[in-house]
Amino acid sequence: MAPFFEIQSAPPGSKARAGLLRTAHGDIPTPVFMPVGTAGSVKAVTPRGLKDAGARIILGNTYHLYLRPGCGLIEKAGGLHRFVSWDGAMLTDSGGFQVWSLETLRKITESGVEFRSHIDGSKHLFTPESVMLAQRQIGADIIMAFDECTPYPATPEETDKSLGLTQRWTERALEWLAVNPALHGYDQHFFGIVQGGMHKEARARAIEHLIPLDLPGIALGGLSVGEPAEMMYDVAGFCTDILPPGKPRYVMGVGTPSNLVTLVGLGFDMFDCVMPTRNARNGTVFTWDGPLHYKAARHASALDEPIDRRCGCYTCKNFSRAYLRHLFVAGEILALELASLHSIHFYQDLMAECRRQIVAGSFAPWSAELLARWAAPAQPESSAPQS
Amino acid sequence: MAPFFEIQSAPPGSKARAGLLRTAHGDIPTPVFMPVGTAGSVKAVTPRGLKDAGARIILGNTYHLYLRPGCGLIEKAGGLHRFVSWDGAMLTDSGGFQVWSLETLRKITESGVEFRSHIDGSKHLFTPESVMLAQRQIGADIIMAFDECTPYPATPEETDKSLGLTQRWTERALEWLAVNPALHGYDQHFFGIVQGGMHKEARARAIEHLIPLDLPGIALGGLSVGEPAEMMYDVAGFCTDILPPGKPRYVMGVGTPSNLVTLVGLGFDMFDCVMPTRNARNGTVFTWDGPLHYKAARHASALDEPIDRRCGCYTCKNFSRAYLRHLFVAGEILALELASLHSIHFYQDLMAECRRQIVAGSFAPWSAELLARWAAPAQPESSAPQS
């Protein structure tokens, strides 16, 4: 049987690699960005829109799905793929980060996390076992360990205590999974999560704990939680040097296009973030020239200019900035659909271009130029076609 | 040159007719329902979604477009078709009904209507001439007379006064159009509007005034403004008996599926209404079994049942009532997109089926059965497939 993950190209010159993830719902070239479908919908985008944008794997949030519509219903539907009519691959988080984020509404103990629903205040308990059951019911192709996110900043002692919990919870999850097989007739690949805050020594211990478990993949959690980007890159780069080279590496919940390109250069393969869709709904889309505030008044008469001339998405092929700006200002839902579609397409294109540059052996100079351009102070936006 | 409108089939047994409208943006079989794209967007639906649903003509509201983004900008864009990327046909209303609806914000005089924007309170004046200019700039294939809607109820005197204004405004509009040709290189077909409230004698005078003008089409305005449905049908049916048989007949702003089928049976050809999209956004869609409150709790576990098994729309082919209900309850924008798509598709299907029944000579018994079924007290909804 072909392996779950395979590195297809990792030329010298950078730590970046091009790979392939094989799932029961299709193969996924890496590096890959996974649009976030929080409660069973990538907000404002249809499954056919996602496919058109090039997405092959999307993410679901166990916390949200557990509360609404409930994992029992999703199991009855035959799994989340069928419930939401998505025939590509899926990954679910464990809900660990989400319940941790509830702050005043949750209590963390050795056994798990007691929390109150953000919707109706009802009381619930997540344990490493219960969230594995939830992920079995949901039936994503890739499922995640139940972890405790280490806050930033945290002392070494706080970090160690938190890391210990994540490690014991990971073992409990694996024990549960070993005797509770998948429910929908196909494999679910379990990823461990590396915590350890910004303390490299703790991150190293987290990785050393995971290596002998020989899991299908490993994720970094607890990044992009308020630390400076340079610190995130430093910790992430430290990790790739000691992570097993043959496993897929996933940085959870990150980030901007610059973050993604930088992390690809540090040897990461998988990403997810609400940023492209959330920002699109708030009036900002991403382009090859950096973020574009499409709702800004200066676009009111940009009748001949799409969001990004180099983009082949439905939005850029059919609509002007002036129209999108008008839709946003007029409160039209279509603005949110079209902007979200574009930004998802852009993130897919960005990952595909990273992959092409990796395979061509030109990733390092290409990404350096791109990141420098994006880091430069914003130029006045021009209406002229970009070369 | 082929005529703008042609009746293709009008068999005995009912007043219903099947026809064809020819425009610079495609031919449109009638009877036809035109989805309403208020401010340059059929709410929550992309142009490709509209095409997929079978729509060949959509409506724009001059009042909304005039305020945002402004008719000058639309003219600069090359017309509304280009601005919104819709290559099918379009019709614009004149804004008459919309400014009339502003009630406390408008003042009607012989010269036109002074009104305050519902958006920012700014002062504006619509005259028969200025709204023809606006419609020239927007560039719809079919443009409408500037009229004053007669309220319901209204005395014969009030009705006469109002009708006189509409008649004089229609003449002024025609004079202006005669010396101000279309701006975008294709014909715009001007429809007159029959007012006259619920007074048949006034309606008859309105029609007699329009007949010698030999306009491309004639619309009924001032219906569905609070009167009982039976009264609307009575007035509308009276009108078709004296309207010129060879002109397309358009009932503005109406209505429910039952309204449409009934009015087709009375000899009307064109319809528009915000109902399918507005109700979809509020949790109700239309089906061959009548309205369906898809947000209702009873659909929470309807995992195997689409909105309507007989519907071939994207929503019905891919998603269950349970999923749509979940999306609505979770506040997901996708609920509004999918529900709107379905209801637009259903309205298109309904008109296409009316046309088939007309051509087959079976419209009268078919529509009688359908209307009786829809008028029957609602049955408990079943999960069984409908025969």
Features:
homodimer, 387 residues, alpha/beta, TIM Barrel, eight-stranded parallel beta sheet, three-stranded antiparallel beta sheet, 15 helices, 16 strands, 17% strand, disordered C terminus
Number of helical runs of chain A? 15
Specify the overall morphology of chain A: globular
CATH superfamily of the largest domain in chain A: Queuine tRNA-ribosyltransferase-like
Helix content of chain A: 40-55%
Q: Provide the CATH architecture of the largest domain in chain A.
A: Alpha-Beta Barrel
Highest CATH level, the class of the largest domain in chain A: Alpha Beta
Q: What number of structural domains do the residues of chain A give?
A: 2
Number of strands of chain A: 16
What is the average of the pLDDT values of chain A?
96
- Main β sheet profile of chain A: 8 strands, parallel
| Major β-sheet strand ordering of chain A | 4-14-13-12-11-10-6-5
Determine the oligomeric state from the structure. homodimer
Structural class of chain A: alpha/beta
* Largest interface, C-beta within 8 A: A-B, 37 and 37 residues
Low-confidence segments of chain A:
382-387
Cα radius of gyration of chain A in angstroms: 21 Å
The percent range for strand residues of chain A is 15-25%
CATH topology of the largest domain in chain A, which one? Answer: TIM Barrel
Beginning-to-end CA distance, first to last residue of chain A: 46 Å
